């Protein structure tokens, strides 16, 4: 247990601040900056910390106890942590779990990520709900320096217009596939080959695809496929992954998706991949006020009798009116039962075989209601 007390503060551009104690790495340079969002899941913080979709964000966890089962690499969703900072109410420094190999504070120190504990997270959530997702900064210091820190935050760019997927090249994902197949004693020759565009893919998506009988071969999502020696004829279908940032500026990725959907082969898009698939068809996207980040988002579809509870993590959404204007008459749609924002669509007639969902059917963490999406994708082959 660490006895060191390091005063810290999270500050918003308007000068609003919340004091606490730092843990993990010390804020680098002038501070740790990112888009402040809140995450409502009660568990699964390891998966959240290592989900590439949180790149560039400071995540405020609403569940008060954080770190109580430590860290183990089996539950990672990528090779590292991607977020910019962590805000919690009560950090557990003595975890209790037989699989734990280190504390959250030790892990964040290794990953060079700053956290702050002892914060009134309910007040932080109210700030984000009322003002929307907004840039914030974690600093070493106290509220007496809030005005100076706020000026630094105000100078930081917003998430709008940010392309955060350029660094995802498929190398780590392909290495994971090889390791997983070996561990499960699965021969790739027995599986159906599909191409995956990597915009920040999670490991559990790859597991789910393999469990459905697919052999996922992963390519850089935002690099023109022609520059990667890509041959669409080698694959029976295509998958477009989750990822961080603004989908409208990932122009190479959208062009790649447009070319692959035009083949008429089965396609599945998840989260950012869903948004970019809609853009490839001619629809529009927009920024949500504070996004959906949690494991309890209800989704209803015009082709499904029951509402499903889903895991979600996104700050942008598809404009459903623009999507309906460009899709064919046999397209079907899903909406969020809370705010009626677009949650998915499918086009299974005519030129396309497309499934596309805003939520995360692989969960990790979250409920498993939506896992049926992977078997529905399998059914298109």
UniProtKB/TrEMBL annotation:
<keyword id="KW-0028">Amino-acid biosynthesis</keyword>
<feature type="region of interest" description="CPSase">
    <location>
        <begin position="1"/>
        <end position="188"/>
    </location>
</feature>
<dbReference type="InterPro" id="IPR029062">
    <property type="entry name" value="Class_I_gatase-like"/>
</dbReference>
<dbReference type="GO" id="GO:0044205">
    <property type="term" value="P:'de novo' UMP biosynthetic process"/>
</dbReference>
<keyword id="KW-0315">Glutamine amidotransferase</keyword>
<dbReference type="GO" id="GO:0006207">
    <property type="term" value="P:'de novo' pyrimidine nucleobase biosynthetic process"/>
</dbReference>
<dbReference type="Pfam" id="PF00988">
    <property type="entry name" value="CPSase_sm_chain"/>
</dbReference>
<feature type="binding site">
    <location>
        <position position="313"/>
    </location>
    <ligand>
        <name>L-glutamine</name>
    </ligand>
</feature>
<comment type="pathway">
    <text>Pyrimidine metabolism; UMP biosynthesis via de novo pathway; (S)-dihydroorotate from bicarbonate: step 1/3.</text>
</comment>
<dbReference type="InterPro" id="IPR050472">
    <property type="entry name" value="Anth_synth/Amidotransfase"/>
</dbReference>
<comment type="pathway">
    <text>Amino-acid biosynthesis; L-arginine biosynthesis; carbamoyl phosphate from bicarbonate: step 1/1.</text>
</comment>
<keyword id="KW-0436">Ligase</keyword>
<dbReference type="InterPro" id="IPR036480">
    <property type="entry name" value="CarbP_synth_ssu_N_sf"/>
</dbReference>
<dbReference type="Pfam" id="PF00117">
    <property type="entry name" value="GATase"/>
</dbReference>
<dbReference type="InterPro" id="IPR017926">
    <property type="entry name" value="GATASE"/>
</dbReference>
<comment type="similarity">
    <text>Belongs to the CarA family.</text>
</comment>
<feature type="binding site">
    <location>
        <position position="53"/>
    </location>
    <ligand>
        <name>L-glutamine</name>
    </ligand>
</feature>
<keyword id="KW-0665">Pyrimidine biosynthesis</keyword>
<dbReference type="GO" id="GO:0006541">
    <property type="term" value="P:glutamine metabolic process"/>
</dbReference>
<feature type="binding site">
    <location>
        <position position="245"/>
    </location>
    <ligand>
        <name>L-glutamine</name>
    </ligand>
</feature>
<feature type="binding site">
    <location>
        <position position="272"/>
    </location>
    <ligand>
        <name>L-glutamine</name>
    </ligand>
</feature>
<keyword id="KW-0067">ATP-binding</keyword>
<feature type="binding site">
    <location>
        <position position="315"/>
    </location>
    <ligand>
        <name>L-glutamine</name>
    </ligand>
</feature>
<feature type="domain" description="Carbamoyl-phosphate synthase small subunit N-terminal">
    <location>
        <begin position="6"/>
        <end position="139"/>
    </location>
</feature>
<keyword id="KW-0547">Nucleotide-binding</keyword>
<dbReference type="InterPro" id="IPR002474">
    <property type="entry name" value="CarbamoylP_synth_ssu_N"/>
</dbReference>
<feature type="binding site">
    <location>
        <position position="243"/>
    </location>
    <ligand>
        <name>L-glutamine</name>
    </ligand>
</feature>
<dbReference type="GO" id="GO:0005524">
    <property type="term" value="F:ATP binding"/>
</dbReference>
<protein>
    <recommendedName>
        <fullName>Carbamoyl phosphate synthase small chain</fullName>
        <ecNumber>6.3.5.5</ecNumber>
    </recommendedName>
</protein>
<feature type="active site">
    <location>
        <position position="360"/>
    </location>
</feature>
<keyword id="KW-0055">Arginine biosynthesis</keyword>
<dbReference type="InterPro" id="IPR006274">
    <property type="entry name" value="CarbamoylP_synth_ssu"/>
</dbReference>
<dbReference type="InterPro" id="IPR035686">
    <property type="entry name" value="CPSase_GATase1"/>
</dbReference>
<dbReference type="GO" id="GO:0004088">
    <property type="term" value="F:carbamoyl-phosphate synthase (glutamine-hydrolyzing) activity"/>
</dbReference>
<feature type="active site" description="Nucleophile">
    <location>
        <position position="271"/>
    </location>
</feature>
<comment type="function">
    <text>Small subunit of the glutamine-dependent carbamoyl phosphate synthetase (CPSase). CPSase catalyzes the formation of carbamoyl phosphate from the ammonia moiety of glutamine, carbonate, and phosphate donated by ATP, constituting the first step of 2 biosynthetic pathways, one leading to arginine and/or urea and the other to pyrimidine nucleotides. The small subunit (glutamine amidotransferase) binds and cleaves glutamine to supply the large subunit with the substrate ammonia.</text>
</comment>
<feature type="active site">
    <location>
        <position position="362"/>
    </location>
</feature>
<feature type="binding site">
    <location>
        <position position="316"/>
    </location>
    <ligand>
        <name>L-glutamine</name>
    </ligand>
</feature>
<dbReference type="GO" id="GO:0004359">
    <property type="term" value="F:glutaminase activity"/>
</dbReference>
<dbReference type="GO" id="GO:0006526">
    <property type="term" value="P:L-arginine biosynthetic process"/>
</dbReference>
<feature type="binding site">
    <location>
        <position position="275"/>
    </location>
    <ligand>
        <name>L-glutamine</name>
    </ligand>
</feature>
<comment type="subunit">
    <text>Composed of two chains; the small (or glutamine) chain promotes the hydrolysis of glutamine to ammonia, which is used by the large (or ammonia) chain to synthesize carbamoyl phosphate. Tetramer of heterodimers (alpha,beta)4.</text>
</comment>
